[in-house]
Amino acid sequence: MSDTPTPAPAPDILELAALLCSRVCHDLISPVGAIVNGLEVLDDNPKPEDRDFALELIRKSSKTASARLQFCRLAFGAAGSAGAQIDLGDAQTMARGQLEDGKLTIAWNLPRALLPKNRVKLLLNMLVIAQQTIPRGGVLKVDPVGEGETMSFRITATGLNGRVPQNIADILKADHGGAIDAHAVQPYYTRLLAQSCGLKVTLAAESDGIIVSAS
């Protein structure tokens, strides 16, 4: 008998939707919880300094929650009708609002152009993957590969202790048959987006950094 494990079945449409919803909720729970904590402080008739702290917490957390909602709507949501195009300038704004945090910056070298929505969704999801390769911060350099509506992308992540998360690299492979849960759904969804565009996403270490590319 073969010792090769039987590949886990791919999630069906309903399960994929549920897993993506779980991912979005995970991204939003922290800032929304901070807003609730700030409001509870205000309800307790706080001292002036505590009131100022609570208001600043609410302002900061509201801004974070808004940025994450806008990013998730574009990266995971419908973002327009079938066949719709999305402005790369809007994608840049969403990416900076979601990912730049004082430790990480984005060097955006893409032209201002309209691209099919799945290509833009692919780009945003590639950025999420690239961010995870430099957990202590650094720079994500985004470059075009080709031009026009068939443009694809190359993201170079550089930062202290950059690494390739092997589980993510494996999920991006077309022959990966492992189980998909809420932690794995984002790279799996990235793979599906790439396939819809006739592309394949790879994640690998190269001399100039950790590279996430679609070709």
Describe the structure in your own words:
This protein has 6 helices and 7 strands, in the order H-H-E-H-E-E-H-E-E-H-H-E-E. The radius of gyration is 19 Å and the shape is globular. The chain has helices at 13-43, 48-76, 88-99, 117-132, 166-171, 185-196, and strands at residues 85-87, 104-108, 114-116, 138-145, 152-158, 201-206, 209-214. The longest helix has 31 residues, at 13-43. With 215 residues, it is α+β, with helices and mostly antiparallel strands. The model has no long low-confidence stretch (mean pLDDT 89). 49% of the residues lie in helices and 18% in strands. It has a 5-stranded mixed beta sheet with strand order 2-4-5-7-6. It has a two-stranded antiparallel sheet with strand order 1-3.
Care to give the gist of this entry?
The chain is about 50% helix and about 20% strand. It is of the alpha+beta class and about 220 residues long. It has helices spanning about 15-45, 50-75, 90-100, 115-130, 165-170, 185-195; strands at about 85, 105-110, 115, 140-145, 150-160, 200-205, 210-215.
Our Rg estimate from Cα atoms comes to: 19 Å
Number of strands: 7
Poorly predicted runs are none
Helical amount: 40-55%
Instruction: Please give the count of helices.
Output: 6
Categorize the overall geometry: globular
Please, what is the average pLDDT?
89
**Main sheet?**
5 strands, mixed
The proportion of residues in beta strands is 15-25%
Strand order of the largest sheet: 2-4-5-7-6
Query: What's the end-to-end separation, in Å?
Result: 38 Å
What is the H-and-E element order? Answer: HHEHEEHEEHHEE
Which structural category do the helix and sheet elements fall into? alpha+beta
